[in-house]
Amino acid sequence: MSDLLKVSSSPHVRAKDDTTRIMLYVILALMPTTIFGVFNFGLRALILVAVCIVTCVISEFLFEKAVGKKSTVGDLSAVVTGLLLALNLPFTLPYWQAVLGSIFAIVIVKMLFGGLGQNFMNPALGGRVFLVISFAATMTHFEFDGVAEATPLAVLKSGEAVNTLDMLIGRTGGTIGETSAICILIGAIILILLGVIDLTIPGFYICSFIAFLVLFGGHGWDSTFIVAHLCGGGLMLGAFFMATDYVTSPITPMGKVLFGICLGVLTGVFRIFGNSAEGVSFAIIFSNLLVPLIEKVTVPRAFGITRTKKPKEVKANE
Amino acid sequence: MKKNLERLVNGLWKENPTFVLMLGMCPTLAVTTSAINGIGMGLSTTVVLVLSNMMISALRNIIPDRVRMPAFIVVVASFVTMVQFLMQGFVPSLYSSLGIYIPLIVVNCIILGRAESYASKNPVIPSMFDGIGMGLGFTVGLTFIGVVREILGNGSAFDVPIKALNDYHITLFGLAPGAFIVLGFLVAVMNVVRRKMEAIGKPLPAVQGCLAGDCGGCTLSSACTGKSLVHPKTEEIPVNPKDVAKPVPDTNIDVKQTANTKNTEDVEKSGSDSSYADDDIQGKGDDK
User: Fold this and answer.
1) A304 lies in a domain?
2) Which residue of A108, A133, A135 is in closest CB contact with B181?
3) N or C end of chain B, less CB within 10 A?
4) Cα torsion at A230, A231, A237, A240 (round to 10°)?
């Protein structure tokens, strides 16, 4: 049967966008970051990216083969997961750990819950958090220019000064994809221009995070401190590429706002009051879990139903 | 003798408390960081289970029905206290690594469940074998989980380091999420085996007890709030013409029952002892 003969209920909107195409856009938008990461950290970063992508694709293929499901490798979502996971790893990570993280991301976080569209948290971040908890030593070991050093965020947390220009360009230690704020912003602009993501979630994420920093950061309105926090760590990468994941973010307009604020506040709490310097991945995963609740309380009002009637109807439904 | 053997197999395999009945989840998830801990927990529970089953079975005609729950608790708690002191005296290291979970054996769902559903209705000897079977089933389950978690999380088995895994520890499996993941995978394996055996033509008997929805045969039936957890198979039972002819309200009851089903599942998952808590509340109501 041809795809043209499939009929679904109205409205019949025809668009060229399908999963594969959107995933291609995301990969394209991640290219500046990836290329810069490889340029920044050398060949090993490239191999690590390749290892993650290949493992993700193979484990998705094998899992679907094993349980007798139709292979969905072609939709490129596993490639995106692998790429995002790799960008969230320090380039010195042993390959076998990267392989384990990729398998965990695909098999346990994504496929066991029903595959693409059913996963309750971002697979790449699930994989990253699995690795952070399991291999804390190698996951927090950062080298730059052959010298082991603390990430700018850790330096910032200990109260020392950081070079914000370096952080903006990305000439610092960190995970492969998180260092360069400019490259991530180029990718984000590509995604926004292509209409793949909208600015609601990243916008509210970053704004609420800035608000949190000003209120509780202990520095007041200190622009250097704020810029350093924005460019440091995985905040940019997380805000534009992982918080906006279709599957694990709310679909309601108000829900997106709430989700963004939730992310900003949680990231602030983890970074300012937590033990470790970084908290983006935990904030996003935690907020992912809240998505069903957020969507439940932010169901938009249907056209024609007045505000006064709404509470009654909700009661009747329950 | 055949019945006794059947009780043993029942506990170990058919109604394995860990993988089939899903009872006693709290110690299952909490103490299985290593195989030794798993065995220790399993065996101490087994001892308590066997002794309390025998005692409750011997007293089954003396204990008034109304106060059976407090009576069971007293019996179980006495044995747990003995086991606790013995462990403190003879295996102090195990005692300290199991910690609070030894006194918590008192409220272990398996022990109260077996007392309620088997020992209080059957003679002493079969009750003893039931306790041995269930206890060993629990021990095997805990040991399995413990071994897998210890190998993956700590690179050793039964406290013996595995050289090949020296540099390959996955800390997550020693922590709580690892317990859930390992338990999930082992239950999945159990279910695959079950399905394979059904395909060969040697079906394992359907699950009994709270999970199977045979509320009619359950002594807690009158007090239970989360009744009729419907097993998929019960839906296939051919319907009597009389039942079909019944008026509409019946369907409403069905709807409620399915709603209850969800609640029961939640209760089952949220804590091993919740169903008994419900029961206690109901009991107080009756007394008034």
Assistant:
1) no
2) A108
3) C
4) 50
Please report residues of A whose CB lies closer than 8 A to that of B175: 133
Q: Which candidate, A156, A143, A133, A38, places its Cα nearest to that of A90?
A: A143
Contacts of B168 in chain A (CB under 8 A): 96
- Note whether B211 and B234 are within 8 A (CB): no
φ and ψ at residue B156, rounded to 5 degrees: -145, 165
Cα separation values, A306 from A310, A314, A316, B17, Å: 7, 13, 16, 54
- Secondary structure percentages of chain B, helix, strand, coil, to 5: 75, 0, 25
Distance CA B152, CA B172 (A): 9
**Residue where the block lists tokens 């419907």:** B230
Task: Assess contact for B262 and B256: CB atoms under 8 A.
Answer: no
Q: Check: pTM over 0.80? Answer yes or no.
A: no
> What domain range is A151 assigned to?
19-298
Q: Which of B170, B175, B181 has the CB atom closest to A100's CB atom?
A: B170
Range with the poorest average pLDDT among A5-19, A70-84, A97-111, B123-137 = A5-19
For B73-88, the pLDDT digits (tens) are 999 999 999 999 999 9
The token pair that represents B135 in the structure block: 């206890």
Radius of gyration, alpha carbons of chain B = 20
Strand duo B156-157 + B160-161: pairing: antiparallel
Asked if this assembly's ipTM is beyond 0.90, the reply is no
3-state secondary structure of A55: helix
Phi, psi for residue A116 in degrees, rounded to 5: -60, 130
DSSP state letter for A299: P
Q: Which residues are paired to B157 by β-bridges?
A: B160
Residues of B in contact with A96 (CB under 8 A): 168
Domain count, chain A: 1
Q: Is A303 contained in some domain?
A: no
Q: Is residue A9 part of a domain?
A: no
